[in-house]
Write a structure and sequence with these properties.
Blueprint: H1 2-25, E1 29-35, H2 40-55, E2 60-66, H3 71-83, E3 88-91, H4 96-108, E4 113-116, E5 127-131, H5 133-147, E6 153-158, H6 164-179, E7 184-190, H7 196-208, E8 214-217, H8 220-232, E9 240-245, H9 253-258, E10 264-267, H10 272-283, E11 291-294, E12 298-300, H11 304-355, H12 360-428, H13 437-465, E13 474-477, H14 478-486, H15 490-495, E14 499-504, E15 510-513, H16 515-532, E16 538-545, E17 550-557, H17 588-598, E18 602-607, E19 611-618, E20 665-670, H18 674-684, E21 688-693, H19 698-705, E22 709-712, H20 721-730, E23 739-743, H21 748-756, E24 761-764, H22 769-792, H23 805-820, H24 829-835, H25 840-851, H26 855-873, H27 878-884, H28 890-901, H29 905-911
Parallel strand pairs: 1-2, 1-3, 3-4, 4-5, 5-11, 6-7, 6-8, 8-9, 9-10, 14-16, 20-21, 20-22, 22-23, 23-24
Antiparallel strand pairs: 10-12, 13-15, 16-17, 17-19, 18-19
Helix pairs in contact: 1-11, 2-10, 2-11, 3-4, 5-6, 7-8, 12-13, 13-17, 14-16, 16-17
Length: 912
């Protein structure tokens, strides 16, 4: 028996060794990637995207070799891949010609090669993936031509010699520029993709010829260097700069466009994830295209913010994926360990079963124990299932509660809007100023603001729960910031005779903080301090700079304090101390802690003769991600509900000369809150003819009225505001109408969804009436500018132009129909409306809104243009032309012709 057991154990150990060996080797697809990106941002972006894609394919063994812009090193790396017999090679060539031979060697060795970003010479590669560099050059040329208003003189700064992107971008750029006689490439600077290669030659050129309108650089780094060089000569505002890459990083293309350094940058995608997908298709011998082109776009000030938000969101999703992949790997290791354990137990079970031959008693005993173990296991499984079901029920219940309170909070914002708007009107009313009522009205306003802050705090709690907060830290003088917040409480301190002090030795101390979030932390801590500190007490804020690169901010009060056994619970949501007999939401301190943690800081509480909260923050910005840092400083005194930042706000002046209804613009308010509708009507009726809809008939009413502008809520009776806006913008009859969304939903997702549905502006409740009025005026002013364009270009509008898509299609189609029927004397406005599939009234209002004249006058203008052509041709006399174009008499035709062209048909014909 002993020998039998020993033999079984030896077989078991051998099998475990074999299993372990197989698990280590596995059937992996080995992919070698020779990286040639020359900048940290490109390298990070490319490597990140290809690694994440590889993490989604456990069968892939990815090896990345970085040549650091060294051609010899890259050739050596590829040679090593070939000698190691990898399955697929991905190459990003530093230069085209030197890499050709080693790529051919790989192909001959039977290893497929995917060339990315830059091509090699010849066709000895399996497939190519990258942006169309010729098209990038063309896009840059088209952008300059379409936006140029100056001299048309251009300087081109190319990439390194021998680089295929540099050659192709120059080729595409020259194709477009050379087609236009007004534009000229004055000089071409041979760069090497880096900043220093630009400065000296560009400075010499600009000193000789400062009359340059555009500089096109083959990447954003050289474009930035060109801007810096121009700045030294005082030419940075005269010259416009175009770059390529559009990286979402500090000093990347998108940031340079937003800051106004670059006029535009062209997105140059890395395509890391697409590269690995193509490599796997090559390995599996699937059918693929030989040339795979990545899409690109121009990024300028109009779309830079949206593209940056999208890239930030992608980065966040990539971080989540990496975190999830890490968790999966941990689970895989645990599974492997448990699998081996199961194998070991199973093998021991075989041994036990073998021993049953020698012992019936042992067999019976083992059988009983096995059944008992199964029953226990089943009991554990049943209990675990019950626990999971209870957890799911609890999670759904909690989610329902949070959704209820969040929705209720959004609903509160509409009545608060009415309260605050009416109170602001009362405060500005000359009859109330100087009376005893003004203090009571200001008290209402103060408490309305307090209620709004509490509602926003509840919404913040929801965002924290869903991890939707993004830190936007800026360099801030912490002493000045603290003073700004303290100013809100100094009146309360004086009224209650509380000693309220700020102590700071270094008043120029700077920290990177999100001013909006840290303002909420300060407000919560100071509100608690004033709430629990008696009259004649003391509250102090001390800012202490430490040697360990940290700053501690102490909030100390002489209040009632917190029991020692409850100190560990104060930051829990909905916690309320046993000695607290005041009303409290219980989430203020929890939010404060979460906001401090977002700054990579800590907050702690000491309670001895009052309470002392201590916030610890790190100096500098190295502890923060680049995406968490902004150079735009938020103004704490600005109106928090406004989503758009670019309005030029004018004071709400009373109009001493009322406008007649005929001169007023028409306004449609789509809102189901009757009080808010009445408020807006009362405030806007002096300037607009106001119509309203509760949302159930919004589209029908908009198409019936064809208003000049629309204000629309999101949460409505039938369709939401997004659907209504999208349908109106798609409909040819209403596409020209500007739409303002006015809603309580202020999160980033809602704003983005609104912009995607085609709205022209997004404002949130509570709103400033003066801002709303200015928004209406600005949008109508922009519509007037568009009308001016169409009026002056009505016969030259082309459908492929990018200016006003829907309106251009309408005008082009309308003009084509009129021109085809211009010699038909029976052709009428009703016929035109029928062919355009709109009613006569809708056609009249649409044409009047776009070009400012009625449709009959427009048809006459087209006929007169045709008459001018016929007079020039000199094939018909004046009477024949008049009757052929449907004019009632030659005299009426002559009068109309002279009114338009200033001379009679006879004089026009003679001069032609």
């Amino acid at each position: 028996m002993y020998q039998f057991v020993k033999y079984i154990l030896m077989l078991f150990l051998a099998s475990l060794s074999l299993i372990s060996c197989k698990q280590k080797q596995g059937d992996k697809i080995r992919v070698g990637f020779s990286q040639a990106m020359t900048t940290d941002d490109w390298r990070k972006q490319m490597n990140s995207s290809i690694k994440i894609e590889a993490s989604l394919h456990p069968e892939v063994d990815l090896t990345i070799k970085d040549a650091n812009n060294n051609v010899a090193k890259q050739i050596e790396d590829i040679e090593r891949f070939i000698s190691n017999k990898v399955d697929v090679i991905i190459v990003s060539p530093i230069q085209s010609k030197p890499l050709t031979a080693v790529v051919e060697k790989s192909i001959k060795a039977g290893i497929p090669v995917l060339v990315v970003d830059r091509k090699i010479e010849g066709e000895s590669y399996t497939a190519y993936l990258g942006a169309d560099n010729i098209e990038i050059g063309r896009i840059a040329g088209r952008y300059i031509i379409s936006h140029s208003k100056g001299s048309g003189n251009i300087i081109e700064i190319t990439g390194a010699s021998g680089s295929s992107p540099a050659y192709e971008r120059t080729l595409g750029f020259n194709q477009i520029i050379n087609e236009s006689k007004r534009f000229k490439i004055v000089n071409t600077i041979q760069g090497d993709w880096e900043k220093e290669s630009v400065k000296a030659p560009l400075k010499a050129i600009l000193l000789q010829n400062p009359n340059i309108e555009y500089i096109f650089a083959h990447n954003d780094r050289m474009a930035l260097s060109a801007w810096e060089t121009a700045k030294t000569l005082g030419l940075e505002k005269k010259i416009k700069f175009i770059g390529v890459d559009a990286l979402n990083s500090v000093n990347g293309g998108i940031e340079l466009v937003k800051s106004g350094v670059l006029d535009g940058t062209i997105l140059y995608p890395t395509g890391g994830n697409e590269a690995l997908k193509l490599a796997l298709k090559m390995y599996n011998k699937e059918s693929i295209s030989r040339n795979n082109i990545l899409n690109t776009i121009v990024i300028d000030k109009n779309n830079a913010e949206i593209i940056e938000n999208q890239m930030d969101k992608v980065d966040q999703q990539q971080l989540v994926i990496e975190s999830q992949q890490g968790a999966i790997k941990v689970q895989e290791r645990e599974y492997a360990s448990q699998n081996n354990l199961v194998r070991l137990l199973s093998f021991f079970l075989v041994i036990i079963l073998s021993l049953t031959i020698y012992s019936i008693y042992s067999t019976i005993s083992i059988s009983k124990k096995k059944k008992q173990l199964e029953r226990i296991n089943q009991t554990v499984i049943d209990q675990n299932n019950e626990i999971q079901e209870m957890a799911q029920i609890a999670a759904k219940s909690n989610e329902a509660k949070l959704n209820f309170f969040t929705g209720l909070s959004h609903e509160f914002k509409t009545p608060i809007t009415l309260i605050m708007s009416y109170v602001e009107s009362l405060i500005e009313n000359e009859k109330i100023k100087g009376t005893a009522l003004i203090d009571e009205v200001k008290l209402i306003h103060k408490n309305s603001n307090r209620l709004l802050r509490l509602i926003n705090q509840l919404l913040d709690f929801r965002k924290i729960e869903e991890q939707k907060f993004t830190l936007r830290a800026s360099n801030t003088k912490i002493y000045d910031f603290t003073n700004e917040v303290m100013a809100n409480f100094k009146g309360e301190a004086a009224r209650r005779n509380i000693d309220f002090q700020l102590v700071c030795k270094n008043k120029n101390l700077e920290l990177f903080i999100d001013r909006g979030l840290m303002d909420k932390v300060y407000f919560n801590l100071l509100s608690n301090a004033f709430k629990f500190t008696p009259d004649n007490g003391k509250i102090s804020i001390s800012i202490v700079e430490n040697q360990d690169n940290t700053v501690k901010i102490h909030f100390k009060d002489s209040g009632i304090g917190i029991p020692d056994d409850e100190l560990s619970n104060v930051f829990d949501p909905f916690f309320r101390a046993s000695n607290n007999n005041k009303n409290s939401s219980g989430i203020g301190l929890h939010l404060s802690k979460e906001f401090v943690l977002l700054h990579q800081g800590t907050i702690e509480l000491k309670s001895k003769q009052g309470s002392e909260f201590v916030i610890t923050l790190l100096k500098g910005s190295s502890h923060l991600q680049p995406a968490q840092i902004t150079h735009k400083v938020e103004n704490l005194t600005s109106i928090p509900s406004l989503i758009t930042d670019n309005l030029n706000i004018e004071p709400d002046l009373k109009n001493s000369n009322p406008i007649s209804d005929a001169e007023k613009h028409s306004l449609l308010i789509i809102e189901d809150n009757v009080d808010l509708v009445n408020f807006l009507k009362a405030k806007l009726s002096n300037e607009y003819v106001v119509y309203n809809s509760d949302g159930s008939d919004a589209i029908e009413k908009a198409l019936e009225i064809i208003p000049d502008i629309i204000i629309c809520d999101i949460n409505l009776v039938d369709k939401d505001g997004y659907e209504i806006s999208k349908e109106l913008k798609k409909d040819l009859r209403s596409s020209h109408i500007p739409i303002i969304i006015l809603t309580a939903q202020s999160n980033k997702e809602s704003v983005l969804k609104g912009l995607q549905s085609g709205v022209d502006q997004y404002l949130t409740k509570p709103f400033s009436l003066s801002i709303l009025k200015q928004s209406l005026s600005s949008l109508l002013f922009n519509r007037e500018k568009l009308r001016y364009y169409y009026t002056n270009n009505i016969y030259r509008v082309e459908p492929e132009s990018k200016f006003g898509n829907q309106e251009q299609s309408f005008i082009t189609k309308m003009n084509d129909i009129i021109k085809k029927n211009v010699e038909n004397p029976k052709f009428s406005v009703e016929d035109l409306a029928d062919k355009l599939c709109v009613s006569r009234v809708q056609l009249y209002r649409k044409v009047k809104a776009i070009i400012g004249i009625n449709i009959s006058d427009h048809i006459n203008n087209v006929k007169l243009e045709k008459a001018a052509e016929l007079l020039k041709a000199n094939e018909m006399n004046i009477s024949e032309i008049a009757y052929s174009l449907g004019f009632s008499s030659p005299n009426y035709f002559s009068t109309a012709f002279k009114n338009k062209f200033g001379i009679s048909p006879k004089e026009y014909k003679t001069s032609s």
